[in-house]
Amino acid sequence: MKGVSRGLIIGISIGVIIGAVLAIAALFCIRFRKKRAQIGSSCSRRAATIPIRANGADCCTILSDSTTGQESPKTSGVNGMTLWLDGTKRRSVVSASGIPKYPYKELQRATHNFTTVIGQGAFGPVYKAQMTTGETVAVKMLATNSKQGEREFQTEVILLGRLHHRNLVNLVGYCEEKGKHMLVYVYMSNGSLASHLYSEKQGPLSWDLRVYIALDVARGLEYLHDGAVPPVLHRDIKSANILLDQSMRARVADFGLSREEMVNPHASNIRGTFGYLDPEYISSKTFTKKSDVYSFGVLLFELIAGRNPQQGLLEHVELAAINTEGRVGWEEIADSHLDGIYDVQELNDMAALAYKCINHSARKRPSMRDIVQALSRIIKLRHSRKHQRKALPTTLEEVSIDMDHSEIHTPTAAHLRGESIDSIADAPED
Fold first, then answer.
1. What global pTM score does this model have?
2. Is 236 a catalytic residue?
3. Residue 188 and residue 56 in contact, taking contact as beta carbons nearer than 8 Å
4. Catalytic residue among 236, 254, 278, 292
5. What residues does the Protein kinase domain cover (predicted)?
């Protein structure tokens, strides 16, 4: 009896041990498969840190000068994953991006054998194309024998395959045939913001429109920083990379230099455009969201002053800041093309915001979410003032009627108008 009991105990013990070993092995296999799946997913959507300097349709080439030096392919510190995708792997990722692939011959016909040039950037020429569907698009072609441009091409396709917002340029397709690399975008009929600020062919932008453009760009960047998962750093915000549609709505373009925030932010070489580069990025070689904020601040001052960094914009701003103390008195830098037709309060509010954005200390700069709220507040106050002005004549008419029915001496209409305006100015804001 004792022998049977002992055998039973031994058998149960062995069974428990075998079960535990099998359970541990199964758990290990499950974790291994999950890890492989996560790595595969990360690899399929990760954008490499690739520089691009193309300015899009109707670009202003004077602003396309970027810093020299190539960022060499290297590995990221994130999960030990390779930063650069190469060869067959890179092509398969592009194919899986969800962006349609166009046949070379179709784009050749649509551009009349690539003769409809509308712009020229560092990436290569940009063509206007009329598709057989009736749709008008812009085709950006990679410059011949440009290895750097090929990396730029891969990044734009991979990133824009997952980024969708009304204030970002839409990539509708790409082409990889006959040794050519082309990107197909929605056609932005009013070209770049730079062309409107600096080209003699374009009429000057009104002040009201400049504020709306600033808000559009801010919303696009806010989406990249706070709406995209993982967040995306644009890394080349400038007036030449802001495109305008037929309604003059602004969209952020050119994502070849962009990278996901999760990718190692340290760079061996500084990439971007002189004049727009964050001083803290230059010294630390670490690009952050606040580096995009700095570039956006420079863009705001471009909209206010109508001059670019290559024309001494920031020196102009710093001289003005001595008198304004960063708050009021910014009218002295207003674009002369505005002919004085602008709202002084709006200009001072926007300039004060821009000055916060270019603070040399990144931590003192506002976030893009704060910037969107500030610009939205400027436009809200504009509408409020317009409604008050519309209501003013009605009030005066009622006063006039009362005066006709009374022989009591009352102040003149002009005096009343002055008092009404003063009361509006002194009224507490909501």
1. 0.70
2. yes
3. yes
4. 236
5. 112-379
